[in-house]
Amino acid sequence: MSVLIKGFRMPENCLKCPMQFGGWCYVAPPEIDERVAPTVDDAVEQGKPEWCPLVDLGKHGRLIDENEVRTVMNWLLTQPQRPTWNDLYHAIQEMNAVIEAEGEG
Asked: Which helix (H) or strand (E) holds 45?
């Protein structure tokens, strides 16, 4: 399971990350020692560690659940009348967003 923190911007390095305090990383995976105390030079040079679980979604439209799309598509294919692309388009428009659009425009 994941958590989205709205408005959170991807930090450039560990020292600028709000998920660390006093050199302790609070999102480090269990197999990584949570004590991450890079020097200023190391952190700036290395940037985001390879093991860091933070992901930048970038600018995106409304994100929906792929499983819900498959369910709707399968349902449409069972209907007596052959579904059109327009039917699928409108069904997708009605789906709930898992994550709302950000940065469109």
From this structure: helix 40-46
Burial class (CB in 10 A: 0-12, 13-18, 19+), 25: buried
* Separation CA 34–CA 52 (nearest Å): 11
Cβ neighbours of residue 39 under 8 Å, at least 6 residues apart? none
Per residue in 47-95, pLDDT (tens digit) is 788 788 899 888 889 999 999 999 988 888 898 888 888 988 998 899 9
Asked if residues 38 and 49 have their Cβ atoms less than 8 Å apart, the reply is no
Task: Report the candidate in 47, 52, 48, 11 with the shortest Cα–Cα distance to residue 29.
Answer: 52
Residue 71, H or E segment: helix 66-77
> Residue 8 has what pLDDT?
86
Residue 94: left if φ>0, alpha if ψ -120 to 50, beta else—which one? alpha
User: For 30-37, which contacts have Cβ atoms below 8 Å and span 24 or more sequence positions?
Assistant: none
